[in-house]
Design brief:
Number of helices: 15
Distance between the termini: 9 Å
Number of domains: 2
CATH class of the largest domain: Alpha Beta
Number of strands: 17
Helix content: 25-40%
Oligomer: single chain
């Protein structure tokens, strides 16, 4: 795959698709991690004397009232501070104002276009990969760099649409993501997969793809109860994915030697951040719900992990938003870090949990993708990447 370093950027108008989909509250950015991760690609383009034009989505735009709260202006302000130079913000996604601003850009200057999903207000032109819109945006530049891994699993006008019409390459963030995640294809062994989160349905493709490669799959989080119910255990009022009980039964039967389930949980009577009781899986009562893996399960998981050479982890092992039920996730994560075990966090909630605990930057790789990471791990083709490969 071509990367930004393979492209001649000098004096070129370089369109860069970033992922600035950051949380904003009362006009203030709560977490600028995604902006920070885009800096390397932007700074490289500027160092090559490019005229840099940035695109990104923010939130979802379904009606007029969504426009104001998903305005990219706060991102432009924050990006200016991080780059230590002015970022020209154009509050529209097309038209004469945008075109004139781009035409007046000098080499080494940077401009941010308004939220690409503003175009979704009229027939979902962005998220529907409207051909005319992709062609129009492409006409604004000379080179296209896709550096938004988080949307690589979607064919949008601002990634696939633009790439159809311009010389294209990936940025440093996507390059790093693909290098890290591709190590799962031929991992150093023993290769252990940790899966958590609430729903089995979200992980079926990942389980089917990785169960053949992994030495063990350790299952925690809410999804563990569907597997346990399939095994005949009493799971109380814990969350159950009833539509996928048959899948759990079949996969447990076929790979009984590979799939490891929890043996105890921290339970409570309500879904609240209250002090839980540690109970063996055989002791859970009808009115109790499991909200975190228990102490014995932490020890069990660590025993399987002690010799691991590669660990892929997707989904927290408990309700990490609750201080009383993030302990299992934290203990296992600290064990991996303290023992220098190569750990890849597979996007979404496990990365958020690791960030909350303050350990995200201590693992080998924490993916910026959510759905994109899952689909890659399922072995699916990512349209945003494929569009570059086809060039």
């Amino acid at each position: 795959m071509k990367t930004i370093e393979d492209m001649d950027l000098k004096n070129k108008k370089v369109l860069i698709r970033c992922d600035f989909n950051v949380p904003i509250k009362d006009g203030k950015i709560v977490d600028d991690n995604r902006i920070v991760r885009s800096l390397k690609t932007i700074e490289y383009a500027l160092s090559q004397k490019a005229k840099v034009i940035l695109f990104s989505h923010l939130g979802r735009i379904k009606e007029e009232s969504d426009l104001a709260k998903n305005d990219l202006k706060p991102v432009a302000v924050r990006l200016s501070k991080l780059l230590k130079k002015e970022v020209v913000f154009i509050p529209v996604t097309r038209g004469e104002k945008l075109e004139k601003a781009i035409d007046s850009l000098k080499s080494g200057e940077v401009l941010l276009v308004q939220n690409t999903r503003y175009e979704d207000l009229d027939g979902k032109k962005e998220s529907g990969n409207d051909a005319e819109l992709g062609k129009y945006w492409a006409s604004l530049g000379d080179v296209f760099i896709n550096d938004a891994f988080g949307t690589a699993h979607r064919a949008h006008a601002s990634n696939v649409g633009i790439a159809k019409h311009l010389p294209s390459a990936c940025g440093f963030l996507i390059e790093k993501e693909l290098n890290a995640l591709s190590s799962v294809k031929k991992p150093s062994k023993p290769f252990i997969v940790i899966l958590g989160g609430s729903k089995v349905s979200d992980k079926i493709g990942v389980i089917k793809n990785l169960v053949k490669k992994a030495d063990k799959i350790l299952i925690g989080g809410g999804m563990a109860f569907t597997f346990l119910q399939a095994e005949g255990y009493e799971t109380g009022s814990s969350i159950i994915d009833k539509n996928n009980l048959d899948f759990c039964t079949e996969i447990l039967k076929k790979y009984s030697d590979k799939i490891i389930l929890p043996i105890d949980f921290k339970v409570a009577l309500e879904f609240l951040d209250t002090e839980g009781k540690n109970k063996d899986i055989n002791e859970i009562e009808y009115n109790e719900m499991g909200l975190d893996i228990g102490d014995a399960t932490v020890n069990l998981f660590e025993n399987y992990l002690k010799d691991a050479k590669t660990v892929l982890w997707n989904g927290p092992l408990g309700v990490y938003e609750f201080s009383n039920f993030k302990i299992g996730t934290e203990q296992v994560l600290r064990y991996l870090i303290d023992n220098n075990i190569k750990t890849i966090l597979g996007g979404g909630d496990i990365v958020a949990a690791a960030s909350e605990i303050g350990l995200k930057d201590k693992v080998f790789h924490a993916s910026t993708g959510g759905g994109a990471t899952l689909e890659y791990l399922e072995g699916k083709t990512l349209p945003g990447i494929e569009a570059i490969n086809e060039k």
